[in-house]
Specification:
The complex is a heterodimer of chains A (271) and B (329). Chain A has 271 residues and is α/β, with parallel strands linked by helices. Chain A contains nine helices and nine strands. In chain A, the strands form two sheets. Chain A has a six-stranded mixed β-sheet, with helices on both faces. In chain A, strands 2-1-4 form a three-stranded antiparallel β-sheet, covered by helices on one side. By secondary structure, chain B is an all-alpha fold. The longest helix of chain B has 54 residues. Chain B starts with a helix and ends in a 5-residue tail after the last helix. Chain B is globular. The chains are: A alpha/beta (271), B mainly alpha (329). Bound molecules: adenosine-5'-diphosphate and magnesium ion (MG).
Chain lengths: 271, 329
Amino acid sequence: MVQPATALDAATPGPVIAARNLDLTFATNDGPVHALRDVNLTIDKGEFVSFIGPSGCGKTTLLRVIAALEHPTGGTITVNGMTPDAARIQRAYGYVFQAAGLYPWRSIEKNIKLPLEIMGFDRAEQDRRVRDVLALVDLEGFGKKFPWQLSGGMQQRASIARALAFDADILLMDEPFGALDEIVRDHLNEQLLTLWARTGKTIGFVTHSIPEAVYLSTKIVVMSPRPGRITDIIESDLPRARPLDIRDTPEFLAIAHRVREGLRAGHAYED
Amino acid sequence: MSAALTDGPARASWALTGLMRGVLPVLSVLMAIIAIWYGASMMMNRAWTLDQMQRQNIDMTPIEIIAAAMTQERPVLPAPHQVAAEIWNTTIGEPIMRERRGQMQGNPRNLIFHAYHTLWPTILGFAIGGFLGVLLAVGIVHSRAMDMSVMPWAIASQTIPILAIAPIIVVVVSNLPALNAAVDQGWISDDTKLLVPKALISSYLSFFPVVVGMVAGLRSPQASDLDLMRTYSASRSQTFWKLRLPAAVPFLFTSLKVSIAAALVGTIVAELPTGARFGLGARLLTGSYYGQTIQIWSALFMAAICAAALVMILGALERVVLKRMGARA
Ligand SMILES: Nc1ncnc2c1ncn2[C@@H]1O[C@H](COP(=O)(O)OP(=O)(O)O)[C@@H](O)[C@H]1O
Ligand SMILES: [Mg+2]
């Protein structure tokens, strides 16, 4: 498993995601909506990148462009050095939607098997992977339950397990914990960091919350609306091992301050 | 302690109230219907009784008039107990099979025998119609051309009165060379041959609700459910089997229940112009030839009982399937 990955890295150095002058305009009944303007961004392997900004600033759209769910109207973007569509066919990423989006007629186990069935893993391998990812998100013993029998936080963890099951190198998450209360959210954030440290995945994470962005990220992309654009990119120098109380340190607060400034600047620009 | 003491009776009376709440409305509606029915039957049959009284020049007390109006042999509107007695006599009171020319055969005096002759074409027609309906819906959802072309025709087909085209279908189908050849070869019996046009007309009525329900069901997944499939680069057939079809199952059952009732109506209508000797439709027809209103009404009730039974079977199947698909109990 490790050997081919290293070989691939050697063959394709350079960033995992690279966007140059990206533009996206939606044609709507009320005229064009400029969702992304002149987005330039580089994400390297193993980074944890948060996208933060007020709603409507194009965070979801940018994530969907990376996932080839939307196609830009201008500029270029590559994922693993190829087009997002090609990368998707190579199972480059797992996507976690804002709502858990588990299929209600499938048990948790069967929901996690969904991508594995589609990608043609054999039965034994499916079972093995389901067991592994359920352990990874701390949901052992819940495989046979149906989604409605789980709390919102557990459902979201199951949805993360589903995105992890086929071992994509990139994990794209669109406000995965947005609907959860703060205590559950803190807990899941800790777990997510542990998982990131253990798997070495590259993570793109959309959020509304400044503390969440600062706590999780190695890089914070600050965005602002109308048209959606990047106003600041902050490289975090916090250590990778982060207990929850790191949020009270001056270093943490300094970064949070800069994020807040970036958001405010984007806002002032508009007025 | 005191809580325990009051708890039992309180709970029992609560359960009783619950029961009453469920049963009382049903019972009172039933009583009201029977009362109105008796009243209507009394009003509609009285004229004939009074007329007879005058002709035979006899005097009757009002009570006798009421009694006579309720016991006519061919009432305009039979009283509930007359229909009930007829149903009893023609089901429990008659053997289902009888001996004829040394062979055991179905007994045409038995209403269950007629129901049987209507139920088989209904189930066959329902199976054909349901299958066709699902097939058309799959086509409509996956092909824009079919969406544009099939749906208008399906709707148009249901605006044609079934009574108008039933005789045409019966004549055409019973003269099909292939069908007649099959009878000549002894592959199918004459009775089976009669079943074919009935089943076809029945499927003609039953495919439509399934098309409409399944199209809605197959289109019911949200954009985000479909996006998830796209992130896996799922093929159209994978998206169909793993998302659209399971999402459509609740819709399917709802439309199947409408569809099977329509199938039964279709079969009964098909029996009218065939001159069929057996079947609930045939029973209705002979009833009206001879002015046997009681027989007509009991055939109608039998049809209603059959429809209710079929819908209930589908309902039970629905509960089992949806439960296995994780529906909340
Ligand atoms: N499919 C679409 N069609 C038209 N407009 C869209 C579509 N998706 C998003 N938009 C618009 O693009 C802008 C950015 O939306 P989005 O990326 O969802 O913002 P965010 O996730 O930051 O809240 C918004 O103005 C939104 O209304
Ligand atoms: Mg969004």
